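<tokenise_the_fold>
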Amino acid sequence: MTRPLLLSAIVLLTMPATADTTSERVAAVTKTPGLVAFWDFVRREDGCEKRFLAHVPDGATNDYPLDAANYIKDYWGGGPTATYADFPLMGRGPFGEAIRIRAEENPDFRPFLYVPRARLHDSPLDIKGAGKSVTVVVWAIRESGNHALAGIWHEGTDLKQKETSAIQKIERGQRQYALFAGLNKEGSACGHVSENGASSFLNRYALHKCNSVGTSPKVPWDAPADMLDASWQCFAMTFDHGTDELTGWLNGKAGERWLENPKDDRLISSAYNAWKQGHFHREPGMQEGEDPAFPQDQFYNPPEDEALSVTVVSETPEEHVELREYRYTKVKVVKRGETETRDLVALKLNPWWYPHDLYTPVNDGSGGPFTIGRVIHSSRGVGFTGWIGGVAVFDRALTAEELTAMTEVGKTPASLTKQP
């Protein structure tokens, strides 16, 4: 057993069976090996601003105070200035407090909380580069939406579309890692990572993402207190560089999610084409449908060395058709004499195979901030709405047992209130 896993086992064994106080709950998170930062929305700085601070490991010099901003004002030059008053407090939560992300009606107002890039660049929160793994955990109650919860995920403001016609500040994507409330599978825990900060497979969007099998319910923000207390969900994403797997977890459970017929999906059809182009490239000569200009670093070819199962679909003297299931793909193989053709008929969305390192910005001018509640993006949508009661980042992939523990410690009895 490696040292991090051994320490994790110790933490789990010593964790109170019922963490009845906020201090016990916070300690259960902060003692988990690999913690980088944990915002419980209770810890705040002294003085006038009283910004939210993260719990950080002993000896850390950066506790990542959160600023408030309206990215529409910053990039389009319009809309009001955001303040902490734009994030109402619940007065209780998994760790004693929670902030509300509202469905803002003003299209020029998209507030979020953030750590500016200049204050996080090259810090432990700036997880990037060779061999790095990451976990993001968010305890939330989802009222609506499927967009960002937390992470370093500046989507860029350079897309050519109606919403960017009046933009004043254009920047390319600066994505590293983030956790979303579903995206293409609304309500799931969706992990998102990028190797280049920008797009994938020649699509305009980044497409390396996963979706937990479980999905979170929609709960009104003003539901009765006992309903809110029973509605906390533990969203999480892990990227394990050792296995090249990106996994979404909801309440400690991941599950296997497949997308059938990926070539017909509006976005994942780009990954389908990247799979085809990679196979074409390895065949001698030019293949029908091959694009010689397709960048090789954007091929998408998960391991298919050994099939987990092979099912014969049909058999005639002229043609043999079988379905081969691999760890991340399902491939239909058609054999006619000496000729064999392959087609990708299903692609695994959870876990998602990601064979790259996390994007490494060259300097603090080419990297994004860490944001909570929303991310900077061109479409200016409302995104996720609801309550967020905790955000934690770890510099390794937590185990299923640890994520189950994160779920249990985040369950809020009705009697729990904020403590001094």
